[in-house]
Amino acid sequence: MLIPMLCSLFCSRYKDFLIAVYTNTSHDKHSRDNARDAIRSNAVITVSGEMQFSSVSKQDVMRYFDELSKQVIRELILTRGHRFV
Fold it and tell me: Are the C-beta atoms of 35 and 27 separated by less than 8 Å?
């Protein structure tokens, strides 16, 4: 029950931020990674502090965020033909 809620929360809160970072052409590889890491840090702090997810470890939150990040990259490549350079 907790896992689907966490996945849903991540999609609703962070997917648009990740899309914005990955499609911003002013980012190079390092600045894109730094922007993603900043969003992930914010996600860990925010989600870990919520009562309904207090039993979820920070490592699990990071893992779910990384899975969402991979999903966003796949979608950008397959549906939009976005290239990462």
Answer: yes
Greatest Cα pair distance, the chain, in angstroms, is 40
Residues contacting 22, CB < 8 A, separation 6+: 32, 36, 72, 73, 76, 82, 84
pLDDT digits (tens, 9 = 90+) for 65-79: 998 999 999 999 998
| Residues 61, 47 contacting (CB under 8 angstroms) | yes
Tell me which residue range forms the domain holding 76. 33-80
Is residue 61 included in any domain, yes or no?
yes
Q: What is the pTM of this model?
A: 0.83
Tell me, yes or no, whether 27 lies in a domain.
no
